[in-house]
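Task: sequence design from structure.
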């Protein structure tokens, strides 16, 4: 169960050479986390292992971003995204995440690897504005249609810019 944590305005900034690494099973349960993950999240290894990865989900993150992420990796494709995470103490930290499916010898997806590094600070201004718009669309649509509404907004923005999602992430 996700703890009830109040977000704060305290930011933890990743160092340039930091890499947060975690691994989950196909249901999103954490099976591995490196020391940098524990440092930034504020959780111990015991608190993280076996817990849903969304334990670090910040409420400023649109549900539609995670729907896109999970749909992409479940289809066997790698995905990159800017993500705002929340630590155990309520502070936050931005990451640039690359999430990749993990396969067994028979070619079946058995889990996912996530490697996060410091994001480009200039990109965060664009991302934060887009995520605010997506959250507004989610709130207006209500819980039942929130993901569809924010994904529709994301698609409209991408179409307006003439970019795919991957192209947008690459130019940020």
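Answer:
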């Amino acid at each position: 169960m996700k703890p009830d944590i109040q977000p704060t305005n305290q930011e933890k900034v990743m160092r340039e050479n930091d890499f947060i690494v975690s691994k989950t099973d196909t249901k999103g349960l954490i099976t591995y986390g490196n020391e940098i993950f524990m440092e930034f999240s504020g959780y111990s290894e015991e608190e993280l292992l076996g817990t849903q990865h969304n334990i670090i989900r910040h409420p400023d993150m649109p549900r539609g971003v995670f729907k896109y992420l999970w749909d992409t990796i479940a289809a066997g494709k790698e995905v990159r995204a800017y993500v705002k995470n929340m630590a155990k103490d309520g502070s936050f930290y931005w990451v640039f995440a690359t999430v990749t499916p993990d396969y067994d010898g028979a070619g079946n997806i058995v889990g996912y690897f996530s490697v996060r590094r410091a994001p480009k600070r200039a990109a965060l201004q664009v991302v934060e504005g887009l995520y605010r718009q997506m959250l507004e669309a989610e709130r207006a649509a209500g819980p039942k249609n929130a993901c569809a509404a924010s994904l529709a907004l994301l698609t409209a923005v991408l179409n307006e810019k003439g970019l795919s999602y991957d192209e947008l992430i690459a130019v940020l």
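Helices lie at 35-41, 45-48, 63-74, 121-141, 146-161, 165-171.
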